[in-house]
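Work Package 3 (structural annotation) set out to generate three-dimensional models for the target panel prioritized at the project kickoff. During this period the team completed the workflow that converts sequence records into discrete structure tokens, so that structures can be stored uniformly alongside our sequence database. As a representative example, we reproduce one entry of 285 residues exactly as it appears in the project archive.
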Amino acid sequence: MSPVLHFCTDAYAGDATAQVASQGGDAGFEGLSEQTRNAVRLIMDTVDMQDSEIYQSGKYGNLLTDGSGYKMEGEGTEPNLTGAIKTAYQVADALLLQYYEEPNAVKAAFGHTLTDEDWAAIGKFMTTCLEMKHGAPMVAVNITHPLLQELEKELKNEKRRLTYFCAHDCTVLGTLSALGAKIDVLPDSIETKTPIGVKLMFERLRDQNGQAWYRASMVYRSTEQIRSGEMLTLDNPPLKYILSFEGIETNGDGLIAEADLFALFDYAINGLYELEETYRLADAA
């Protein structure tokens, strides 16, 4: 489950980092800094960061103007953010957990009054950071490789009625990216793709001819369900978002044929082998 690199060379790291940077458009990491600057300013204001002695010491630089980047340190290590955006991400992570756990929204925001849109901006910032860390396709197929193998193995086990894996939001996001899942924004969640407690679910159903079909979905609590600590029941169920995947057709009921689903898994799993072949040949040349 650990989201670490299973293959890495200097050439691969360079190209993968460039793919991460492309999320910021032509401006690269500077573009990402520009896209997230308002959210970073909101986070800093919410926790009164400018009044912090350790921030004033200069240890963390200037989160609004310093550049951000990405590092890959080799096999067995987790890719990570660097620079100002990493610090802002760590603060935002703690801030969102406090918002989920503290019923008083003003108290959760350290005495500040944040609108629903403000909290959503912080949640979107968290998603952006997770996409930077683990969402680039060249990174996702690498770090999720063993998990994808286990998932496919379990899905092919006809005797298995239920398989349950526990992981983190970064693992879920990497898996979604590796499989080419199409998600715009999850409804009623301030974390737009992988809210806390989210589940990636594959359901196997059979038609009258015994043919297996699959429904892939994200199951999660709404932000209000999390904050209120409501018990989930048949009358108060979690939310469910049906997934689709790039290049994979569904039938009229939104189901994926078994052969197509396993072909999708094989394609994502082979992604790591293709990276190894490409970059080892490049190094040999």
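DSSP finds eleven helices and eight strands in the chain.
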